[in-house]
Amino acid sequence: MSIARFSPFELLLLKSRSQVDTATLLLLAWVLVHRQHVSEGQRRRRLAQVTAQFRHGHELGPIMSIAHSQDLQAIQLAAEVVRKECSNERSLSALYQAITLATDDGDLSLANHYILRFLADLLNIAPSTLSTLFQELTGKPLCPPEDPSRDAYWQQHDPEYHARQAQEAQAAEQQAKEAHARAEQRQRAQTEKQQKKQQKQQQEQQRQQEATRNAKARAQREQAQREHDQHEQARRTRWQQEQARQEEARRRQQHQRSSSPPPADRTTRALAVLGLAPGASRTDVRQAYRRMAQLHHPDRFYSESDHLVALASARFQRIKNAYDYLMQTY
């Protein structure tokens, strides 16, 4: 079997000259490491003094290291070695030495109180026997161990226990308040962040809506301007066509006057002003007047120059005079 599979205490037992002495040495060392207000050097010197007759044959350092490590498996193994290899008297002797070491300074620590009871149980020693042995060695009864979970224990051993508990409770309450305040602060910061984000989104939405309205209004203005330009262009085209037609009529009239020696009478001239030939009916006169009045009314030329407005007014007056004359004579 490989040596690496053994625990440190098992290796000590294998190398020991007396396994019983080594096991007893560990049990006593376990008691010593729970002595209060004792230095490590004092523990080792006291252990060496008590175990001067032991035949283990190794240093105390490894034993003290195992005791400090609280290796319960090693403690249990040591108790089994003592119980199996020795008589009841040797077990009592080991417990006797443990009580001696635990009460050197007159006080039995709470840890050693429990350790003595635990060792007695491991060594198959009855509690009554432990109490009797303790009474014989110390002159004091072995009272039940105190319970550290009760406030009475700490009131006796630690007068500042309640004050410390109050301070700890106050500190915990303060920490809880601070944590709550930090949580509220984070919540407020998160809320403000969300509000700013929503406000920014609303502003962006408003800007987009405003841009959409402006674009729509601009498109409407452009459409209205195009329609106005088209209307004006159509009106100009009609006016130019009418001017060309009238010019053609004047040229024909001039040609007729130049080709026919007698001048036309007033009725013929009035019909010519309305764009009618001789022999036109009264209905033709009315229709021609309405058409000519719509085309040449001065109000249609309000946006033109004063000269054009004056020409239109004169032309409309000739049309009206011709119409009035024809309606009187027809």
Automatic annotation (TrEMBL):
Spell out the Pfam families in the cross-references.
DnaJ (PF00226)
Which UniProt keyword terms apply here? Chaperone
Q: Which residues form a coiled coil?
A: none
Q: Does the keyword Transcription apply?
A: no
From which residue to which does the signal peptide run?
Answer: none
Identification of the protein by name: Molecular chaperone DnaJ
Q: J domain location, by residue?
A: 269-330
- Compositional bias of type Low complexity: which residue ranges? 200-211
